[in-house]
Amino acid sequence: MQSIATKTAVVHFNSKVYSELNAYIKRENPSKIFVLVDTNTHDFCLPQFMSNLESGVIQTEVMEMPEGEDHKSIDICVGVWEAMSQYGADRKSLLINLGGGVVTDLGGFVASTYMRGISYINVPTSLLAMVDASVGGKTGVDLGVLKNQVGVISEGEMVLIDTSFLGTLPQNQMVSGFAEMLKHGLIFDATYWYTLTHLEDLDISDLDKLIYDSVIIKNKIVTEDPTEKGLRKILNFGHTLGHAIESYFLDNEEKTQLLHGEAIAIGMILESYLSTKICKLKSPELDDISAGILKTFSKTNFEDKDYENIIDLMKHDKKNSHGKVKFVLLESIGKAKRDCEVPNELILEAFEYYKSL
């Protein structure tokens, strides 16, 4: 697969991953190399990665953080900053983030702020990180249960996608990443959506091409609007309600925590229903979206008491302005509309629609 040039970096795939990484290290000669992993990637991905890393005489330090969204916090950042300082990281050091979306988001933020910015490289190991989190330069951490409230947009030197790492993932993590791929089809490419919802016509060998196509879609959007002033906002489809649902389930002991993609899948169905009321999305397309998503994602149970709390959490969404919640909705499959305002009564209707499925 050909490498994909982003605004300031390059995404390399599979056979090119380690040759490009080692060539970069030889060319740039960083003072030290730091590899950030979580407890899972330390055990399942780090040995393969290190066996292919030709750092030569350059000192390499591995830093391990706990796995999971609830550790995507400033406290963990402080620990990583302190470890880098203790091991003598300077402005010519290189940070390599080997992990899923939590590691690439947090590691990118750490690198972008340590000594006002050092170079970093993302090596995504989850499907979610490969198709979404590691590409586009969005870095950051959560503020309590509020998703991605602190961060900067700053691209790394490169993204290295080695799809063999997907073999280390449990099934639920693969499914979680698939939600972002579905989103890319819904907002930008109806043909891609159709392909993803008819995977029975494909086999496992097609996965690399589907990942590649998903990165292409995201890169087209991000290249046109790197700082999210306009078009890039459409990447938030399903996320206004999805993030609120994810945060609510994360903070509620009575609820089973949802993976990011599981929450976004719910958000996409809810926001597709809203699209029929606000943007004239046709009912047959809503049916197609709901059926396509529920092919892969199980339904989640909601109680009436949940709705007010979820709606309240939406006020923290990053797309909001002047106190108004802004949604990305669909005019049709493959065509999104940004900055849509939705009254709360329609959101309650959307939850009733979801319950009826």
TrEMBL record:
Required co-factor(s) are: NAD(+); Co(2+); Zn(2+)
Choose any GO biological process term that the UniProt entry carries and state it. chorismate biosynthetic process
The answer, when asked if Metal-binding is one of the entry's keywords, is yes
Q: Which domain of life is it from?
A: Bacteria
Q: Which residues form the 3-dehydroquinate synthase C-terminal domain?
A: 177-320
Q: Name one Pfam family in it.
A: DHQ_synthase
Sorted keywords for this record are: Cobalt, Lyase, Metal-binding, NAD, Nucleotide-binding, Zinc
Q: Which residues form the 3-dehydroquinate synthase N-terminal domain?
A: 63-174
InterPro entries per the UniProt record, alphabetical: Dehydroquinate_synthase (IPR050071), DHQ_synth_AroB (IPR016037), DHQ_synth_fam (IPR030963), DHQS/DOIS_N (IPR030960), DHQS_C (IPR056179)
What role does it play? Catalyzes the conversion of 3-deoxy-D-arabino-heptulosonate 7-phosphate (DAHP) to dehydroquinate (DHQ).
GO terms for cellular component = cytoplasm
Listed name of the protein:
3-dehydroquinate synthase
Q: What is its EC number?
A: 4.2.3.4
**GO MF annotations for this entry?**
3-dehydroquinate synthase activity; metal ion binding; nucleotide binding
Q: Does the keyword NAD apply?
A: yes
Its EC top class is: lyase
Q: Which organism is it from?
A: Winogradskyella wandonensis
